[in-house]
Amino acid sequence: MSLTDLANPTRFLSLTTRILPWLAGLTACLLTLGLIQSALAPDDYQQGATVKIMFVHVPNAWLSMFVWGVMSLAALGTLVWRHPLADVAAKTAAPIGAAFTFLALFTGSLWGRPMWGTYWEWDARLTSMLILFLMYLGLIALWRAVEDPSRAARAAAILTLVGAINLPVIKFSVDWWNTLHQPASVMRMGGTALDKSFLIPLLVMAIAFSLLFVTLHLAAMRNEILRRRVRTLQMMQASRAGSV
Amino acid sequence: MRLSGRGLKCVRGGREVFAGLDFEAASGEAVAVVGHNGAGKTSLLRLVAGLLTLAGGSIELSGGEDDLPVAEQAHYLGHRDALKPSLSVAENLSFWRDFLGGEATDPAISLEAVGLSHTAHLPAAYLSAGQRRRLSIARLLAVRRPIWLLDEPTSALDAAGQQMFAGLMTDHLDRDGLIIAATHTPLGIAARELQIGGGA
Amino acid sequence: MSALGSIIRRDVRIALRVGGGALIGVLFFLTVVVLMPFAVGPDLKLLARIGPAVLWLGALLASLLTLDRLFMADAEDGSLDLIVMSRTPLELACAAKALAHWLAAGLPLIVATPVLGLLLNLDGTASLAVMLTLLAGTPALTFTGMIGAALAVTLHRGGLLMAVLVLPLSIPVLIFGVAASQAAISGPVPFGTPFSILCALSLASMVIGPFAAAASLRHGQD
Fold it and tell me: Do C24 and A141 make contact, defined as CB atoms within 8 angstroms?
């Protein structure tokens, strides 16, 4: 199975029909396992039970950046290789990425609540994540603004790549801005040596959430391909001569 | 019903388009406004529709319903289609039927008459130029108005479409309607010519 | 009545479909509010103090930004000619369009306010106060902004010119909106005083706006 085979949307559909149930099952199993392990993990001596939010927060935060990476790759696919599935992948990844980013923000805010006494602190990590969230929303708005997906694809691809280049700059600027005003984040993970009892559930959860992304993304891509087919069929129907 | 204009004068952007123009039309009659480009065909229609202000002269309507002004008894079919691409064909038509009000026809019947039934649920964005024009024509049927002001109505229509539209115009005249159409091409119905701008 | 209902339904539908601008206004609001701490620093006490003002400014700019196209789209595709000609009085049609715009673009801003209040360290009371004042005040912004949108159509110029025309007109709304929010949060003026004036401004603009817009649309047709 080479990349060119996958490029064919029909083959993509039939392939995903076969693997999606397995993927979904595997994701569910791993997620359950990860959640049980997280629940059984010991409390932190400083943060108490709230530290367990980490097991959800960290995978989501990681994925929020990973998805932008996936979209950048897809953007290259649109602009350079003109891969027929690239813009489908880019378009469908954006809402999922936005959802992961939102979950990371939400859990981060819950995590910070007992530490800060407020739900929101302009902490460097969370603030960068908020900007990433805004960029996701902007990208979704761009996709929604143009009815013809192939026309929106190039604009979105350019914006995605510019965003990818800009993200480190934004991250650096926010860190710099933040250190001017306040001390470091609470969202450190116990320095370099994270205890094994934390590390294993965290890894399981990270893998489970990554699989969740793959599952959701493939399913969303299927929907988008089918949606585009419906659109083409409708346009063909419109151009059919009516009975006068 | 009788629609007439006396000594009409139209000034646009400081330039006099025409002056001293008279016209007259009665129920069951079609008037074809002809003249070279820039002679003021569109301006005349917009004057009658009340979309431009008269610089001189007067337009009178006698025998119409309930003393309504001409604009409210008229359909205006301009160059632009007044369609929203994101709404479906049926939604576009139903909106104009509900908004314009008055004696209304089922949108499905109007769509059938212009040969667009098969597109009713599709977004108007998918329509071709000729189909968009047909949809605008369906608007004329969706709500009854005795006066039709048509600006190049047959542009973008294919031969079958022009024939269909000629039939619709004939029906309208038979129901004591009145048509004023600005046109370069023959309308396909018997119409009195009104030459403006001193010959082509 | 059904004519007005149909125009409201149509405009809300268009705003919510692909290519419609309803949610972009909220996104703009969010972005403007998020920018503020980068300019003034993440001092939570300071943010809580200026929070209502920031939210009001954001809402003002967001509702103005989306108003730009209120009549322009209808003018471009010829719908406006038919609306002017119709049996519905143009003033009422304008009011219906403004109401539809407020439903699609103004109401989401108010719904988003508590979330943004969280970012600006506003407590529950303060967020509620800002929401309430926005609920009373944003109609005034829409109905005054409508005049600018109508002028923009007749002048065939949109965007910045409209902002320059309309922003000064919305100063009273801004003053009493922020004053009422502050009154609810910290006093010393009773909340009722500026809030009543804010409501009065909204009601007055609902009368003046449609008439002014209709007048400029009627005479600007060319």
Answer: yes
| Domain presence at residue A240 | no
Q: Which residues of B touch A242 (CB under 8 A)?
A: 115-119
B13 to chain C: nearest residue by CA?
C222
Q: Which residues of A touch B (CB under 8 A)?
A: 147, 234-235, 237-244
CA dihedral B84→B88→B91→B96, nearest 10 degrees, is 30
Any domain includes B200? no
Question: Does residue B102 fall inside a structural domain?
Answer: yes
The two structure tokens encoding residue C58: 């954001």
- CA C43, CA C142: separation in Å to the nearest integer? 33
| Total number of domains in chain A | 1
Residue A177 touches partner C, C-beta closer than 8 Å: yes
- HSE-CB of C119 using CA atoms within 13 angstroms: 23
pLDDT at site A2: 46
Q: Does residue A238 fall inside a structural domain?
A: no
pLDDT of residue B16: 85
Q: Which domain holds residue B99?
A: 2-195
Question: Complex ipTM above 0.90?
Answer: no
CATH number of domain containing B57: 3.40.50.300
The answer to whether the Cβ–Cβ distance between A147 and B86 falls below 8 Å is yes
Asked if residue A234 belongs to a domain, the reply is no
Question: Does the bond joining C190 to the residue before it have cis omega, within 30 degrees of 0?
Answer: no
**With an 8 Å Cβ cutoff, is B69 touching chain C?**
no
Partner-chain residue, chosen from C2, C78, C221, that has the shortest CB–CB distance to B81: C78
The answer to whether the Cβ–Cβ distance between A131 and C42 falls below 8 Å is no
Taking the alpha carbons of A114, A120, A123, A125 in that order, is the dihedral positive or negative? positive
Q: Which domain holds residue A108?
A: 9-183+195-228
Q: pLDDT value at position C176?
A: 92
> What is the domain range of residue C6?
2-220
- Digitized pLDDT (tens) for each residue of chain B, 200 residues in all: 888 888 888 888 788 888 888 888 888 888 888 888 888 888 888 888 888 888 888 888 887 666 788 888 889 998 888 898 888 899 999 999 889 887 888 888 888 888 888 888 888 888 888 889 999 999 998 888 889 999 888 888 888 888 888 888 888 888 888 899 988 888 888 788 888 876 44
| B147-151 and B178-182 strand pairing | parallel
* Res C65: pLDDT: 82
For residue A3, tell me if it sits in a domain: no
pLDDT score, position A213: 93
The CA-based diameter of chain B, rounded to the nearest angstrom, is 48
Closest residue by Cα to residue B108 from B118, B121, B99, B117: B117
DSSP SS3 for A203: helix
Domains of chain C: total: 1
What CATH number should be reported for the domain holding residue A177? 1.20.120
State yes or no: pLDDT of A233 exceeds 90. no
Neighbours of chain B (3+ CB pairs under 8 A): A, C
**CB of C70 closer than 8 Å to CB of C142:** no
pLDDT, one tens digit per residue, over C81-134 is 899 888 888 999 999 999 999 999 889 999 999 999 888 888 888 899 999 999
Q: Residue C221 has what pLDDT? A: 62
* Mutation to test the B interface, candidates C8, C76, C87, most B Cβ within 10 Å: C87
| Contact between B78 and C78 using a beta-carbon 8 Å cutoff | yes
* pLDDT, tens only, A193-212: 566 777 888 888 889 999 99
pTM of this structure: 0.86
Number of domain units in chain B: 1
CB C108 within 8 A of CB C26: yes
Which of chain A's residues have a Cβ under 8 Å away from the Cβ of C37? 122
